[in-house]
Amino acid sequence: MNLQTQEKSTDFFDSEVSSNTSNGWRTIGYVHSNYLKLDGQYIINPSTEKPYIVPVGYNPENTINRFVEYDQKNSVFQNLFQYKTSGYFDLQRGFNGEKFGGFVDDYRAIASFDFGLALSSGGLSLTTGEIDGGIINKKMQFKH
Which of 3, 44, 48, 107 has the most CB atoms at less than 10 Å from its CB? Predict the structure, then answer.
C-alpha cells in the first residue's frame, strides 16, 4: 500500500485560511493543498464523493506508525489529546509543527479521517473517539 500526496510536483492548489474576528470570519491567507492518493488513485471522501483535501506533504502512514508506536510506549489517550483545537495534530489549524494562524475548512474531513486512523492504530474504537471527542467539544463550547 502506498499512501501519498503529490508533494514533489507543482500539482497543488491553495486552501483558504480563515480567522474569526469581531466582524465575522475573514480570509487571512492561504496554504498549499493537494488530494490524497493511494497507489495513484484518489481517496474519496464518502460524504462529498470528492477526493480528500490534505496539506502538501501529508502522509497518513505517518499517523499510523506514530500511534502504533505510542500504543507500545506511551498512553494512546495522552497523545490523542493533541487532536484538540490548536493541538499539535489539529490538521485544521496547522501541519508538521507550523500553525496556519487560522482555520482551514478544506481540512475538516481529513482531520476526522486522520483522527480515526490514530484511534484504530492505537487499538481504540471509533466509538471511543466519538464519545471522548464529544465530551471535549462540549467542554470547549463552554470555554468560548
Answer: 107
Q: Please name the residue that has the C-alpha cell 500553525.
A: 99
Angle between helices 108-121 and 60-73 (to 10 degrees): 40
How far apart are alpha carbons 20 and 94 in whole angstroms?
Answer: 16
DSSP string, 22-80: TTEEEEEEEEEEEE-EETTEEPEETTTTEEPEEETT--HHHHHHHHHHHHHHS-HHHHH
Contact 67, 75 (CB under 8 A): no
pTM confidence score? 0.77
Q: Are 70 and 52 in contact (CB under 8 A)?
A: no
